[in-house]
Amino acid sequence: GLATSLIGRHQIGVYNAAGQREEKTLYVEKVRVIPQPFGSLYNLMLDSAGRVSQQRFTSEKIGVIDVGFRTCDFAIADKTRYSERGSQSTDSGICLAYDAIANALREKSGVQVELYRLYEAINAGSIKIRGERHELGPLVQRAFSQLAGRIATEANRLWAEDWDIDAIVLSGGGGAVLAPYLKGQVAGEVLPVPADQDARLNNVLGYWKYGNHVWGQAQAMTG
Q: Which residues of 14-32 are buried (b: 16+ CB within 10 A; e: fewer)?
């Protein structure tokens, strides 16, 4: 499997600040595979040194909804233990909302706007196509609300038997955008998305903190 293929010696290339490539040898002794949405949980639970800073996440049952561009991942951590029954991945990424917005604009203007060009336009609230400005507010609200409804339906169905979930964490760039729409539709206490953090990096930061947690324990044991 994945863990087996990663164990052993690997030749990798590392680029420095000047853009120069160096060959390095990486030796992997042990691999720990963790579901992707758990990174968001570790990001909330641990500080930068890998120490537990939020005790509630170690003692409660937490649902995680991680909305990415193409996919939406659901996971449950019961006192940090992974629950396979309450976890799955669907294709309900934020790109579905972008597709809906792009299709509505095509009907109005006759132009198929590329999805990547919608990001700044959505933040600005409008887009100019062939000299005509199109307001995006109503289109965005409708598309985001519909996608949030789809995700909420998936979460509520998946977690129907997990009525004892203490809180739900939203993560990912899509999760941050859809948070105002999801809070009224997902059953349970939905924790607010921190405004000072880039939600797209939640998993990355969480795994970095978890690495510090594991590495710190290993260092302490070896002196």
A: eeeeeeeeeeeeeeeeeee
Three-class DSSP category at 132: strand
| The two three-digit tokens of residue 54, written as one number | 């939020």
- Total residue length of the chain: 223
Provide the token pair at 135: 């307001």
Looking at residue 159, its amino acid is W
pLDDT digits (tens, 9 = 90+) for 116-147: 999 999 999 999 999 999 999 999 999 999 99
Residue 96 token pair: 């579905």
- Residue 89 carries which side chain, given as an amino acid letter? S
Q: Specify whether the CB–CB gap between 183 and 191 falls below 8 A.
A: no
Strand stretches in 16-130, DSSP E: 21-28, 61-67, 72-78, 81-90, 126-129
This prediction has a pTM of 0.83
Q: pLDDT tens digits for 5-47?
A: 889 999 999 998 888 999 999 898 888 888 878 888 999 899 9
Q: Could you report how far apart the first and last alpha carbons of the chain are, in Å? A: 33
